[in-house]
Every structure is written in structure tokens, then in C-alpha cells.
Automatic annotation (TrEMBL):
Name listed for the protein in its UniProt record: Uncharacterized protein
Pfam families (alphabetical): DUF190 (PF02641)
InterPro entries: N-reg_PII-like_a/b, N-reg_PII/ATP_PRibTrfase_C, UPF0166
Source organism (scientific name): Thermovibrio ammonificans (strain DSM 15698 / JCM 12110 / HB-1)
Family: Belongs to the UPF0166 family.
Lineage start: Bacteria, Pseudomonadati, Aquificota, Aquificia, Desulfurobacteriales
């Protein structure tokens, strides 16, 4: 898909693994939104530790069953597709951080036949 190569926007969303929207994990709900909006794709990263909006240290502990860990979702696409997505995203994030930055996509490839 050569259409993604060039100057693009990187949308980075910082939320918690425990965040929910309509009873589903928020990160999963956002991925479904990405698909519905036809964005190029998204990647979800679960962090080992972080300090969030309330300056609370959140880290992995083997002794806890529930892990309230930081999650980062990255989405890269054109500004024309990202800007309308931001408006919809604003309706589902109760607490978190959203940043947008300029990037240059050098290469975007996928296997033939897929």
C-alpha cells in the first residue's frame, strides 16, 4: 500500500488497561473504531509501568490478579482521516492523554495476496 508513504500524522493514545467503554476494554473499542473508520491500522502496546494523570505509579506485580497497566495505542494515517477520528475518540475517552505529531512514512508493506 504505497498510498500511506509520505507525510502523515501519528496519533498516540495513552489510557489504562482497565479503562472500559460500553462494558468492553477501551483499547479494544478504539481498535474497532479504527477499523470502522477505515484508518490504515493501529497498534496497542501494554506497558510494564507508568505514572498517569494522578501521579500514581502503575506497575506489573506478579502477586496481583488484576493489572491496571498503561496502554498506548498508535495510529498512523493522513491528517484528513485522523482529524474526524479525533472528534469521535473524544467521546469515548474519560481519562487519558492523546497526542498528535507529524511523521514521515518511509515504507508500508504487506504480504502479497493478503
Amino acid at each position: 500500500m504505497k498510498g500511506l508513504v509520505g507525510k502523515r500524522k501519528l496519533l498516540r493514545i495513552f489510557i489504562s488497561l482497565d479503562d472500559k467503554f460500553k462494558g468492553k476494554p477501551l483499547w479494544e473499542y478504539i481498535l474497532r473504531m479504527v477499523k470502522e473508520e477505515g484508518l490504515a491500522g493501529a497498534t496497542v502496546f501494554k506497558a510494564a509501568a507508568g505514572i498517569g494523570a494522578h501521579s500514581e505509579l502503575r506497575t506489573f506485580t506478579v502477586w496481583r490478579l488484576a493489572q491496571d497497566l498503561p496502554v498506548v495505542i498508535e495510529i498512523i494515517d493522513s491528517e484528513e482521516k485522523i482529524k474526524p477520528f479525533l472528534e469521535k475518540l473524544d467521546q469515548v475517552i474519560e481519562e487519558g492523554l492523546v497526542v498528535l505529531e507529524d511523521v514521515e512514512v518511509i515504507s508500508y508493506r504487506h504480504r502479497k495476496g493478503e
